[in-house]
Amino acid sequence: MNKREQVLVNFRELINKLAWFNKLKMEECLKEYKSVEVHYIECIGSHSESNVTKIAEVLYMTRGAISKMTKKLENKGLIESYQKPDNKKEIYFRLTKSGQEIYDIHEKLHKEFNDRDSIVFEDITEEQFDNMLAFLKKYDEHLDSEISKMNKDDMLTK
Questions:
Q1: For residue 127, what are the contacts with CB-CB under 8 A and spacing of at least 6?
Q2: Which one of 22, 31, 41, 76 is least enclosed by Cβ atoms within 10 Å?
Q3: Cα 14 from Cα 112, distance rounded (Å)
Q4: With bands split at pLDDT 50, 70 and 90, how would you rate the model's confidence at 149?
Q5: Strands 87-95 vs 50-51: parallel, antiparallel or unpaired
Q6: Of the candidates 48, 49, 45, 47, which has an alpha carbon nearest to the alpha carbon of residue 73?
Q7: Where are the alpha helices (DSSP H) in 30-125?
C-alpha cells in the first residue's frame, strides 16, 4: 500500500472509530432520539434562517428527505416553522425550547469529546496544523468539485 492509500485508509478508520466511540455517549445521553434527528436539530440550531434548501445542502440530503424529517420534528415539538414578514413564500425552521435542550446537550457532549481528545493536539506545531488544514481544505474542495459534476450529470440525464 502506498502512502496516499495509507492516508485514506487511516483517515477513514479514524473517522469511523471516532464516530463509534462518540456514538456510545451520545446514545446514552440522547437515548430518546435517533441520531438523524439530533443531526437535524444540530443543523437548525447552528444555522440561522434554516430552510429546507439550506438544511439539504448542509446535510447532503434531498429536499424531499428534509421535508419529511422537518414534519416529524415539528410533530414531536422539537422545531417550529415560521415565515418572515417580508417573505411569505419561504418557510424557515427554528428550535423550540425542547429542541434547544437537545441542541445544548449535543453541544456539551461535543465539548466533552474535544476536551477528551485535546491531548492529541498538545505537541502539534503551527506548521503541522497548517499542513493538515491545507490538506483538508484541498480534499474538501476536490469533493465539492466532484459533487458539483455529479449534480450537473444528474441534471443532464433528466
A1: none
A2: 31
A3: 18
A4: confident
A5: antiparallel
A6: 45
A7: 35-46, 52-59, 63-75, 97-117
Average pLDDT over residues 22-45: 92
Over residues 87-101, mean pLDDT: 92
70 phi and psi, to 5 degrees? Answer: -65, -40
As a whole number of Å, the CA-based R_g of the chain is 19
Supply the pTM of this predicted model: 0.82
What type of residue is 87? N
CA 146 – CA 7 distance, rounded (Å): 20
Helix H or strand E encompassing 12: helix 3-29
**Residue located via cell numbers 498538545:** 122
Nearest CA to 113 among 15, 22, 19, 39?
22
What cell was used for 6?
Answer: 495509507
* Cβ atoms of residues 80 and 59 within 8 Å: no
Within 8 A by CB and 6+ apart from 106, the residues are 26, 30, 38, 41, 42
Strand order in the sheet with 87-95: 50-51, 87-95, 79-84
